[in-house]
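User: Structure tokens for both sequences below?

Assistant:
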Amino acid sequence: MYNVYYYFNGKRKVYGMKKKFVGKSLAIVLALFVIATSVITAFADTDHQYSIDELKLSVKLPTYMDVVTRNLSTNDEVYKRHSKSVLNFQEYGIYLQAFSQDGKQILTITMDQDENSKTVDNYNTLDDSQLASIKEKFSQAENCQSCSMDTYNDIIYFDSIINTPSDGNTLYVTKADTLVNGMYIHYTLQSNDGEIDEADKEFMTTVLKNVRYELESKSIFDRDIMTFIWIIGTVLVVIIISIIIYNIIRKKKRQSRLDIIDDRMYRNDRKDRQQAENARKNRNTATGAERPDAFFDGVDGIASSEDIDEIEKALINEAHQQVSEYADKYSTQDAYDETEEYGKEKAEYSEFLGEDRNSVRERRKKRVSDRKNSRRGRKF
């Protein structure tokens, strides 16, 4: 016996498990596994898939049906069993016929083509009004009892129920028509047990749900002219919009660069003007070492501006002093008699003053010339 412990409300509990019980449990699990495997296998074998390469489709049909295709040998047992019921496949465009074992149902798959089917290619390419028009044509077909439009696996089908009189009897048929890969494909279920009932409709629906198509990706040149024009127009519109967007972005970037350049030019111009204004103020107000030409004071024997100004002031003061002396000298009674001599001396003073001013100008010119020839004024 195996002891298994567990805790309940803080207390240790123990219960036993016998080996016999374990063996029974294992046997039950294995039995369930075998049953499940058998069921899955049984369901898997209820259908068989058939491929029709000419139609680029495959369909699953119940295994209880005998299926005849174009590839089936005439010596096959299935073909021999239904040889009297098998129609001429080539003549009627038949690709598959399936017979129920009780003979109550016959499923037939046929195909035909024309220029319209090659142009349209697929019912999914049509709009609602075009599909409604096609449905109306099926509804107006001879002996059609009803018609509906259904979609299975993204494929559109027109389902019709047709009762056709034949040799004093009535042939009961439910039919599903579709257009895929430029081919009209027809699924016809014939009931040999009276009118089409819900079981027949359900069987047809199951068949259509189990059909798979290998859809073709058609070249652009195989489509109709309007589709081609629409695609070309769409491409051109996209290209034009792309060009417009590119030009707008390019203009914005160029304008941004121009704005940056303009701002720099404005700042540099403003800076230059400010420097010029500051230099002008310094020329008018600076004294001593802050004068613009103070840098050249005492360089290579160049006289400073302040020295020259002092010399000019001294000369002017000396001239005024001499004038005052002349005025004192000729303020007596005989001043009138000496007027002519005073005039001559005044003229001599004017000439002296003029020569002195000329000498000042010459010194200034020499100062400028010396600055240009000085070592500090040279460019290396």
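Moving on to the next sequence.
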Amino acid sequence: MDDKEPDSKPQNETSRIDLSEASLDRELVFYYSRERRLAKASPKLRAFIEGCPQKRPPVLGGLTATKAHTVLLIMIIVLSLFISIASIVSGGNKEKNAVKLEGNSIYLSAQPIEETSYLTIRKVVRNDEAIYTGPVDVAISLEAAKNGSASENLPIETHRIFFTSKPEEEFGLSIPFRGSVLVVIMQTENDNQKIFKVKLK
């Protein structure tokens, strides 16, 4: 029985494509319609593609566009007001508690650290004031008890700091004892002296 031999020559795939000059001269048909796609697009997209200027929403409208944005805006406003009021009140208290030493406004604060104390001296200067610059001797002791104990038995710690012409300076002094109230004496080279009583926080 004779079997037909398979065609050993593979068919050329390009033979299926009509590459005649007539086919090449035909007008190509495009199935993509830009107008149809734009008709289904959103107004913002159409305006963007066509180059039309878009109106920006107002700033307040954007901040209150959602409920979460509105709550966040209210919280920011309340927090800003609270910080402003606190700074005004604290600033006013500082001015009242300031002690002048030859044109320098002095603020003192102290806090206990285990069995010792840490004294902070803050100096503030205004531009329109004549100020003292130079060494300042600082003596620190404890407030005498009300029962009349001898003052010579109270511990005394001495330091020397230097005031410059900077508008604000801060000095930290470590005191090797602690108590409820510290008595601080500050004296300049001109023998001007100020006495402070500082409660430990």
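User: Anything stand out in the second?

Assistant: Residues 92-96 have pLDDT under 50 and may be disordered.
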